[in-house]
C-alpha cells in the first residue's frame, strides 16, 4: 500500500502543499518528541539493562509503579464509565460545569493537586480529620499513591470515554430498546462494544499518565522505598546524587512502558 | 473547505518552525543589551531561600544598578545544572561536598565558608505525638519525615541520629526504632517542613534556618545538643568563566561583611568562617 494513500478512505495526499504540511509536521514532532526520547536512551548508554534491574529499590519502584498505575486505570474505568456515559447521553442543569470541573485536574500543576489532597485527606484535612480517629490515615501509604494518580489521571479516561459514547449512533440504542433489551443490556451489548476503541484509548492515556505521576504523589504520599516510591520518584531521588542512575531508571521506565503499550495494542486490535 | 483549512495551517506551521529557529538569538541579543551587564545570576541551596533573598535585596539597595537573579534548588541540583552548562556567576551550596566537586572540575573558584547551619527537630505546634525529648523520636508508630540520604540535610540527620545512638546516650536500639518510624524520605528540606507544618508528620529533622518567621508559628522546635548535632558548612564561590568576576566577588565579600553576617544570624544561621 502506498504511503500516500489513507488505508481507510483511500484519499491520496497529492497536492504539493499537502506534502509540505505532512513533512513539516513530521519533522517538528520528530525533533520535539522522538529525538529527546532517543537522546535519553543514547545518553544512558548500553549498560543500563545489565546493572540496575538487580537493585532492590529499583525493582520495588518499578513493581509499585506498574501495580498502582494498573489499579488506578481499573478504578478509573469502573467509576469513569458511568460518568462518561451520563455526560454523553443526558442534558441537565449544571452539566457544563460538571464537565469542566472534571477536566480541571488536567490543567492543575500536580504539586497543587498534592496539596489539595493533603488538605482533604490528611489527618487535619477537611475529610481526614473525621477518618483519622477511625484509624484511616491515607498520607504516606500506597493507597495515597493510587488516590493521587486517580486525581490527575482519571479525567483522561472520562474525557475519551465521553467522546466515544457520544459517537455511538443513538438510533442503534433505540432499536436495541425496541427489541426488548433493558437499558443496561443495551449499554452492555451495543454502546460499550461500539465505543470500545475510545475506551481503550482513554484507559491507555490514564495508565500512561499514572505511570509518569510525580508531583501529587511526592506531596500526598511521600517518598519511601517499597511503599510510596514509584519510578518517577525513584528517578528524581537518583537525580539528587547521580545523573547516570537517573537516566538508567528513566530508560527502564521508557522501555517497560513502550513494551506494555505495544502488547496492549496487539491484544486489542 | 479542505483548501480553506490547509493554507492557514501551513502558514501557522511555517511560522512556528521559523519562530523556533529564530527566537533564541533574538532573546539572547535582547538580554545582552538590557541586563546582561548588570544581572548577577546566583545558584543557591534551597535552605538559603529566605536568608539569601534578604541578602540580595540588601545588596541591590547598595548597588541600585545591579539586579540579582537567584536560582534556589537542592545543592545537588544546582551542581548538576552547573556541570551541564548552566550559566551562573555565583554558587552557594549547603555543604562542601558539592563545592569541592565543582572546584575539582574547574567550574568554580576556590570557595569560602561564610556561615554554618545546625539541625533541629521540629513537630507541629500542637505536637500530636507529644514529643518533648529527643528520645521520644523512638516512640513506636511515630510518623517521622527526613530528607533522603542523598540530600545534605538528610545525610546530616542520619549522622546526628547515629551520634544519639552511642551506647553512652540512647543506645543502638534507638537508631533502629527511629529508622522504622520514617514514613517519607523527602527530596528537599522544604518538603520535610511542609509535611510537619501541615500536621501530617509527627516530627522532622531540618536546619535551624528552616524555622523561618513564616512557619515558626506552626512549628515546635526541639534543640539537638552540639555534641550530637552536625554542623553544616556553607561555601560560596565565584563561578569560573563568569563575565562579571568583579561584581560576583563583591557579592561574595558582602555576604561575609558584618551587614551580611547579621542577616544570616537573623535567619537562624551561625556566623564566622
Explain this structure.
The complex is a heterodimer of chains A (269) and B (273). Chain A has 269 residues and is mainly alpha-helical. Chain A has two domains: 1-44, no CATH class; 49-268, MetI-like (MetI-like fold). Chain A is built from 13 helices and no strands. Chain A has helices at residues 16-44, 48-52, 56-89, 95-107, 110-121, 128-131, 142-166, 170-178, 183-194, 196-212, 215-220, 231-239, 243-268. In chain A, helix 3 crosses helix 12. Chain A starts with 15 loop residues before the first helix and ends with a helix. With 273 residues, chain B is α/β, with parallel strands linked by helices. Chain B has two domains: 32-116 and 233-266, 3-Layer(aba) Sandwich (D-Maltodextrin-Binding Protein, domain 2); 119-228, D-Maltodextrin-Binding Protein, domain 2, CATH 3.40.190.10. In chain B, the strands form two sheets. A five-stranded mixed beta sheet of chain B has the order 2-1-3-10-4. A five-stranded mixed beta sheet of chain B has the order 7-6-8-5-9, with helices on both faces. The longest helix of chain B has 33 residues, at 2-34.
Which helices and strands occur, and which strands form pairs?
The complex is a heterodimer of chains A (269) and B (273).
Chain A: H1 16-44, H2 48-52, H3 56-89, H4 95-107, H5 110-121, H6 128-131, H7 142-166, H8 170-178, H9 183-194, H10 196-212, H11 215-220, H12 231-239, H13 243-268
Helix pairs in contact in A: 1-13, 3-7, 3-10, 3-12, 4-7, 5-7, 7-10, 8-9, 12-13
Chain B: H1 2-34, E1 39-45, H2 49-62, E2 67-73, H3 75-83, E3 90-92, H4 96-104, E4 112-117, E5 119-124, E6 144-147, H5 152-164, H6 172-180, E7 182-186, H7 189-197, E8 203-207, H8 213-216, E9 219-223, E10 232-238, H9 245-256, H10 258-266
Parallel strand pairs in B: 1-2, 1-3, 6-7, 6-8
Antiparallel strand pairs in B: 3-10, 4-10, 5-8, 5-9
Helix pairs in contact in B: 2-10
Please sum up the structure shown.
The complex is a heterodimer of chains A (269) and B (273). Chain A is mainly α and 269 residues long.
Amino acid at each position: 500500500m502506498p504511503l500516500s494513500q489513507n488505508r481507510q478512505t483511500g484519499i491520496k495526499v497529492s497536492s504539493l502543499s499537502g506534502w509540505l504540511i505532512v513533512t513539516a509536521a513530521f519533522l517538528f514532532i520528530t525533533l520535539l518528541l522522538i529525538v529527546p526520547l532517543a537522546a535519553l536512551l543514547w545518553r544512558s548508554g548500553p549498560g543500563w539493562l545489565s546493572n540496575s534491574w538487580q537493585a532492590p529499590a529499583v525493582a520495588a519502584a518499578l513493581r509499585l509503579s506498574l501495580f498502582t498505575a494498573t489499579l488506578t486505570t481499573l478504578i478509573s474505568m469502573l467509576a469513569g464509565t458511568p460518568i462518561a456515559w451520563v455526560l454523553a447521553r443526558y442534558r441537565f442543569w449544571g452539566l457544563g460545569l460538571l464537565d469542566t470541573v472534571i477536566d480541571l485536574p488536567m490543567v492543575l500543576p500536580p504539586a497543587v493537586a498534592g496539596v489539595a489532597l493533603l488538605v482533604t485527606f490528611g489527618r487535619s484535612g477537611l475529610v481526614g480529620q473525621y477518618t483519622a480517629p477511625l484509624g484511616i490515615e491515607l498520607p504516606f501509604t500506597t493507597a495515597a499513591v493510587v488516590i493521587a494518580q486517580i486525581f490527575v489521571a482519571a479525567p483522561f479516561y472520562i474525557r475519551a470515554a465521553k467522546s466515544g459514547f457520544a459517537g455511538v449512533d443513538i438510533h442503534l440504542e433505540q432499536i436495541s430498546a425496541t427489541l426488548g433489551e433493558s437499558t443496561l443490556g443495551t449499554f452492555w451489548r451495543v454502546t460499550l462494544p461500539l465505543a470500545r476503541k475510545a475506551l481503550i484509548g482513554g484507559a491507555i492515556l490514564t495508565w500512561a499518565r499514572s505511570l509518569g505521576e510525580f508531583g501529587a504523589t511526592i506531596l500526598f504520599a511521600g517518598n519511601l522505598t517499597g511503599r510510596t516510591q514509584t519510578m518517577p520518584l525513584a528517578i528524581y531521588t537518583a537525580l539528587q546524587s547521580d545523573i547516570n542512575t537517573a537516566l538508567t531508571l528513566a530508560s527502564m521506565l521508557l522501555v517497560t512502558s513502550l513494551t506494555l503499550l505495544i502488547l496492549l495494542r496487539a491484544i486489542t486490535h | 473547505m479542505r483548501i480553506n483549512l490547509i493554507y492557514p495551517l501551513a502558514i501557522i506551521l511555517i511560522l512556528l518552525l521559523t519562530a523556533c529557529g529564530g527566537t533564541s538569538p533574538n532573546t539572547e541579543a535582547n538580554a545582552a543589551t538590557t541586563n546582561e551587564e548588570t544581572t548577577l545570576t546566583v545558584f543557591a541551596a534551597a535552605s538559603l531561600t529566605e536568608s539569601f533573598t534578604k541578602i540580595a535585596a540588601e545588596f541591590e539597595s547598595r548597588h541600585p544598578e545591579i539586579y540579582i537573579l537567584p536560582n534556589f534548588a537542592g545543592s545537588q541540583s544546582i551542581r548538576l545544572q552547573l556541570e551541564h552548562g548552566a550559566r551562573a556567576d555565583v554558587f552557594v551550596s549547603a555543604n562542601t561536598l558539592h563545592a569541592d566537586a565543582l572546584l575539582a572540575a574547574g567550574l568554580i573558584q576556590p570557595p569560602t565558608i561564610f556561615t554554618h547551619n545546625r539541625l533541629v527537630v521540629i513537630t507541629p505546634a500542637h505536637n500530636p505525638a507529644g514529643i518533648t525529648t529527643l528520645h521520644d523520636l523512638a516512640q513506636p508508630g511515630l510518623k517521622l519525615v527526613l530528607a533522603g540520604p542523598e540530600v545534605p540535610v538528610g545525610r546530616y540527620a542520619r549522622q546526628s541520629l547515629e551520634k544519639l545512638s552511642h551506647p553512652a546516650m540512647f543506645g543502638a536500639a534507638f537508631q533502629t526504632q527511629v529508622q522504622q518510624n520514617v514514613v517519607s524520605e523527602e527530596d528537599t528540606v522544604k518538603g520535610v517542613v511542609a509535611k510537619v507544618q501541615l500536621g501530617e508528620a509527627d516530627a522532622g529533622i531540618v536546619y535551624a534556618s528552616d524555622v523561618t518567621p513564616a512557619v515558626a508559628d506552626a512549628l515546635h522546635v526541639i534543640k539537638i545538643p552540639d555534641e550530637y548535632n552536625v554542623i553544616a558548612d556553607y561555601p560560596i564561590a565565584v563561578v569560573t568563566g563568569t563575565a562579571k568576576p568583579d561584581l560576583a566577588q563583591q557579592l561574595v565579600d558582602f555576604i561575609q561583611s558584618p551587614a551580611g553576617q547579621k542577616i544570616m544570624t537573623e535567619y537562624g544561621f551561625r556566623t564566622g568562617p
